[in-house]
Write the structure tokens for this entry.
Amino acid sequence: MNEMQGYKACLETERTALLAIKSFFISVSDVGYDDKILPSWVGEDDGMPSDCCDAWEGVMCNATTRRVMQLSLNYTRRLKYYDRTSASFMNMSLFHPFEELQSLDLSENWFTGIYENRAYDSFGSLKQLKMLNLGFNYVNDSILPYLNTLTSLTTLNLSYNKIEGSRTKQGIHIRFRPADIHVRQLN
Ligand SMILES: *[C@@H]1O[C@H](CO)[C@@H](O)[C@H](O)[C@H]1NC(C)=O
Ligand SMILES: *[C@@H]1O[C@H](CO)[C@@H](O)[C@H](O)[C@H]1NC(C)=O
Ligand SMILES: *[C@@H]1O[C@H](CO)[C@@H](O)[C@H](O)[C@H]1NC(C)=O
Ligand SMILES: *[C@@H]1O[C@H](CO)[C@@H](O)[C@H](O)[C@H]1NC(C)=O
Ligand SMILES: *[C@@H]1O[C@H](CO)[C@@H](O)[C@H](O)[C@H]1NC(C)=O
């Protein structure tokens, strides 16, 4: 349909899914930051649906398929100050529509974990994901079994989380080359 209009825009399902991701980040941020969170991700641009492949910060699409290939969502959750004692979960189901996603940066968001409800399925749907950055969150070893469902993953960054180094190696060494695993303790 978009091609009939003479230009190739991003997929409507992916555009809608990105707007849901924006709403999610607003919902897990402190009040007063709404305008600071992904301001270029807007529903409409001069009355036309805005093209998420064009000028949406942190979104990179495949030039041919116009499907989202890379998402940089680092430092998107905004907090006045970080309280380590409060749990906060990332909803991986939000990424389900992005079948061609190869690179996902979720660093610096201080999530303590992921919603385990259907989490296996959610990660499993990211069949092409090669790079995942979860640095500067606060996840522990309970995330490792889910990471093992990412069958295309070659680079995983878990710096500055609450992962036990040795258990990490046992948990994910099976498929990942140790050189690609970046783990640092946060104390
Ligand atoms: C974009 O998609 C096309 C068609 O699926 C594929 O051949 C190409 O390798 C993709 N480009 C990149 C940079 O992944
Ligand atoms: C996210 O990471 C990219 C690449 O490392 C960087 O260029 C960008 O400034 C970062 N964004 C934020 C909001 O920190
Ligand atoms: C996670 O996101 C999915 C897809 O948008 C939604 O259906 C589900 O209710 C969300 N789960 C939680 C716990 O918020
Ligand atoms: C690890 O994280 C999960 C999810 O946030 C939490 O339920 C669990 O209590 C944590 N385990 C430890 C040992 O901290
Ligand atoms: C891992 O990610 C963090 C946050 O983006 C970054 O500061 C760090 O340099 C990365 N580590 C490696 C080895 O790439």
Summary: Residues 72, 74-75 surround 2-acetamido-2-deoxy-beta-D-glucopyranose (ligand 2) (CB under 6 Å). The chain has four helices and ten strands.
